[in-house]
Amino acid sequence: MMINLYFILQVILLVGSAQADESTVPALTLTEVYSKAIQLSEAVGVQRELKAQSEEHIHQTYGAILPTINGIGSYTQQAGPKSTLGGVSASTFYPTSQPLAKLTLAQPIFHGLSEYAALRQKQRLDEAQQETVKQATSQLYSEVATAFYSILSLEKDFANLKVQIDLYGQRILELQQRVKTGRSQLSDVLTTQAAAANLRAQSEQILGQIESARENFEYITGLSRQTSLVDSTPFPSDLGPLKDFLEKRERRPDVRASRIQLAAASENVSVARGAHIPSLDLNANYYFWRYGALQNEGINWDFTVLLTVPIFAGGTVESKVREATSQERQSTLLVNQVTRQADTQIRSAYLTLEADRSQMLALKTATDLAERNFLEETREFRLGLVTNIDVLTALANFQETNRAFDRQKFTVLADWAKLQAAVADYPQMSKVGSL
After folding, report:
1. Cα angle 211-213-216, degrees, rounded to a multiple of 5
2. Confidence band of 286 (pLDDT split at 50, 70, 90)
3. Residue 87 lies in a domain
4. What is the model's pLDDT at position 93?
């Protein structure tokens, strides 16, 4: 009874206030935790801000195409001239007071279409940043799933230990009765008590691991470490062939982002080459207030069409073209690299899931057999056919195998989440079934 009371208290301390009233604080599934984590994640938030900045870059690039209008005002006071020009006082042309108020307009007409290439480049970079945001959420899903199943695995292991210690407690009570009747020795009781004490030590270690896992969970998700968790994910059944997952590679945000960045790099080559082409600009002024003879004659506007023909710039323009071309080749190499990395990650996640799932199925069979063996050893012990050590060995084998099976179940679920993240197929599941 003391053993049971001890572990009941430990469980109460473990779950804390989060489970004190399940009606007001419902347990969260992986999808719910992931949804809340996205809202609280700094990493995702940073990428979203970068996305907002890339949108502003597009607006700024539009400014190179649209006209620029400015209001300009100035006032200059200078010494009066001492001479005359053709009998006319120089002050007519160079007055001592020189006020100026005007509107200016500058409109690019033709810059070799480089401004439009620059706009397309910014738009491609904005699309790439959107994919980067998705990649951040993909990485977050994998991290959340790992933390989520780590906690559930440890808590299930702790519960399994409690069951195992309860079985040892029942075993101790039975042996104590048998000692009183002379059918067992005191050493059998002591051996069983020592085994139970060792399990209690293991449970303390697992409690520490749970606290550490909860701390990591709070850091990754931003949720309280006391958040109650529940698993509602069915086990992946028939995964299908590996090629089906490899075909989803192009849906990955990092692969899509790399291809979009390659398109942006190609546009940058056009931007650089545009500097070789003559440019045409329009500049116009409207004067509200000006000085000298122009004001007296009522000349209140002018405009200029400016043609600029690039002849020589010290080789910088051609150098920028070569640099942009090199960056385009670099982007091509990055596309190939990211694609191969995606294939490797998908293949590795798939093979890991397959291996862990096979191990889980083998452990389930081993658990069933170990349970049958324990029940049979218990029956034969009561008939005097086997010793207490045989029963304890069978019990330990059954419980350890069962604990390993439960741990492996959560490992498989975490593997499945990682495979989903690897093919950008989350949080919905497409191929699942019950074990």
Report:
1. 110
2. very high
3. no
4. 62
CA neighbours closer than 13 Å in the CB half-sphere of residue 345: 20
Domain count of the chain? Answer: 1
Whether the CB-CB separation of 335 and 128 falls below 8 Å is answered with: no
pLDDT exceeds cutoff 60 at 355: yes
Report yes or no on 7 lying in a domain. Answer: no
Give the DSSP per-residue string, 126-175.
HHHHHHHHHHHHHHHHHHHHHHHHHHHHHHHHHHHHHHHHHHHHHHHHHH
Minimum mean pLDDT among 101-115, 317-331, 406-420: which range? 101-115
pLDDT of res. 368: 95
Question: Of residues 260 and 77, which shows the higher confidence score?
Answer: 260
The CATH number given to whatever domain includes residue 172 is: 1.20.1600.10
Summarised one tens digit per residue, pLDDT across range 31-56 is 999 999 998 888 899 999 999 999 99
338 Cβ neighbours under 8 A, 6+ residues apart: 254, 255, 258
- Biggest alpha carbon distance in the chain? 144
Please name which of 420, 9, 40, 18 lies closest in space to residue 230, comparing C-alpha atoms: 18
Residue span of the structural domain in which 55 resides: 25-76+93-422
Q: Are strands 97-110 and 68-77 parallel, antiparallel or unpaired?
A: antiparallel
pTM for the model stands at 0.78
Domain membership of residue 112 (yes or no) is yes
In a domain, 435, yes or no: no
| CA–CA gap between residue 316 and residue 398 (Å, rounded) | 77
Q: How many helices (H) and strands (E) does the chain have?
A: 10, 6
